[in-house]
TrEMBL record:
Native source organism of the sequence: Puniceispirillum marinum (strain IMCC1322)
Enzyme class: oxidoreductase
Gene Ontology molecular function terms on file: 3-hydroxybutyrate dehydrogenase activity
Name of protein: 3-hydroxybutyrate dehydrogenase
Protein family (similarity comment): Belongs to the short-chain dehydrogenases/reductases (SDR) family.
Length: 260
């Protein structure tokens, strides 16, 4: 179901979420984007989505740490566009530290944004999807929803949780035309990962590019970053007619990371 429908993408002011918003806009969908950013940058993003093909685009500034704001964002957007056909739970943050030194407030933030917001948004959106008799929920988990890396306890816990939530909701909606799936990308060169590369480059004294190559070669047998546009194309596929029987799965896009 595409065209003149409504898709809401959280964390769509940057990186993977923005690529997904552009892709769904290009299919003629009305778009609600969530995410943080300067007013003028967000206004430019909304204009770019209209140019890409969205009839209407709105931005909701809800803080994904606030359950009430997350649920309100869904209901307001659904009211505005007469429903919500596609929800992409994409907003996410990272914090890198060993468990013994992991700041509790960072743990709370990562869990709130990367996991609890997925629960609140999905719960609110599913009500509208059930009423409409159709819906797609796509959760951007991570390769870290399947395997761990040191110093990423909160992120790994949250992303594993997203996969469990995805399976549970898929079962709860298996008899209707609502599917719930996750996507698990490997490294994608976005601000979230660039911050980690900059940190590693500072520690090693190497250049950004050298450290980026090392980061990828370390984990991904492909030695190539996953492309944000490819993740967006996967979202489009999961929203298309050929994916009607795909539910409760995790689509892994990791250049062989988890095959090792
Ligand atoms: P990004 O930093 O480019 O974008 C994150 C988005 O989340 C931004 O729009 C930001 O404004 C939004 N956000 C952050 N905190 C928020 C808050 N409190 N309230 C509302 N919005 C908030 O990151 P990205 O790499 O594009 O990541 C997108 C998703 O993909 C995340 O869930 C991330 O975990 C996942 N992911 C990323 C990679 C990668 O290598 N980049 C790999 C696997 C999974």
């Amino acid at each position: 179901m595409m065209g003149a429908q409504h898709a809401l993408i959280t964390g769509a002011t940057s990186g993977i979420g923005l690529a997904i918003a552009r892709r769904l806009a290009s299919q003629g969908m009305n778009i609600t984007i969530g995410g943080l950013g300067a007013d003028d940058e967000i206004a430019d993003i909304c204009k770019s989505l209209i140019r890409a093909g969205a009839p209407k685009t709105i931005h909701d500034p809800a803080d994904m740490r606030d359950p009430v704001a997350v649920r309100h964002m869904i209901d307001v957007a659904a009211d505005r566009f007469g429903g919500i056909a596609i929800l992409v739970n994409n907003a996410g943050i990272q914090h890198v530290a060993p468990v013994t030194a992991f700041p509790p407030d960072k743990w709370d933030d990562v869990l709130a944004i990367n996991l609890s917001a997925v629960f609140h948004a999905s719960a609110a959106a599913a009500v509208h999807m059930v009423a409409a008799g159709w819906g797609r929920i796509i959760n951007i988990s991570s390769v870290h929803g399947l395997v761990a890396s040191p110093d990423k306890a909160a992120y790994v816990a949250a992303k594993h949780g997203v996969i469990g939530l995805t399976k549970t909701m898929a079962l709860e909606h298996a008899r209707g035309a609502i599917t719930v799936n996750a996507i698990c990308p490997g490294w994608v060169k976005t601000p979230l990962v660039e911050q980690q590369i900059i940190k590693r480059a500072k520690a090693s004294g190497k250049s950004f590019d050298e450290e980026a190559n090392r980061l990828v070669a370390d984990k991904m047998p492909s030695w190539t970053f996953t492309d944000a546009d490819d993740v967006a194309a996967a979202v489009q596929f999961l929203c298309g007619p050929a994916s009607a029987s795909i539910t409760g799965t995790s689509l892994i896009m990791d250049g062989g990371w988890t095959a090792q």
